[in-house]
Write a structure and sequence with these properties.
With about 160 residues, this protein is an alpha+beta fold. The chain has helices at about 5-25, 30-35, 50, 60-65, and strands at about 55-60, 70, 80-85, 85-95, 105-110, 115, 120-125, 130, 140-145, 150-155. The protein binds FE2/S2 (inorganic) cluster (FES).
């Protein structure tokens, strides 16, 4: 094989190896149509707590300054978060809607219980009925603290 024949074979080899790349590069519309027909993938969760269904309802600073956090815009209903009076390391979260006739209960720090302003029903820190006329406990949420954030899991 002389030099000219060798160079001819090398040229054919190069053309053959670049042909699939050249074909793919010349058909961008087909790829764009495929991408536009499929919905974009959901964005990755930015935080593991969000992916577990937790949402921030306030800060620990706010909880400790005010004694409670009331968030009326929580998905599925209002949420009221307090520190447990028997163990401040524990936080409790309830739906503050009174089970009697639907008034919003308030956390009374001095008496360590929720009191309904409408007909004086009383509930313990975990939402259990202490005094009627309510007969059912307050709905509760799973709650946790991460850093300065108070996170509640929606029902
Ligand atoms: Fe709460 Fe009646 S609505 S005690």
């Amino acid at each position: 094989m002389n030099r000219r024949e060798f160079m001819s074979w090398v040229s054919v080899g190069c053309m053959a190896s670049f042909l699939p790349v050249a074909i793919a590069a010349c058909s961008p519309n087909e790829q764009a149509q495929t991408e536009s027909s499929n919905p974009p993938p959901p964005p990755p969760p930015t935080d593991s707590s969000e992916s577990e269904g937790f949402e921030a309802v306030g800060t620990v600073t706010e909880l400790d300054e005010n004694g409670a956090i009331l968030n009326k815009e929580f998905p599925g209903g209002s949420v009221l978060v307090i520190r447990n009076p028997e163990d401040a390391a524990i936080v409790n979260a309830v739906n503050p809607t009174c089970t009697h006739e639907g008034c919003t209960v308030e956390w009374n720090v001095g008496e360590s219980k929720y009191i309904c302003p409408c007909h004086d029903a009383e509930y313990s820190a975990d939402g259990t009925v202490l005094q009627g006329p309510a007969t059912e406990s307050l709905a509760t949420y799973t709650v946790k603290i991460e850093g300065d954030s108070v996170l509640v899991k929606s029902l």
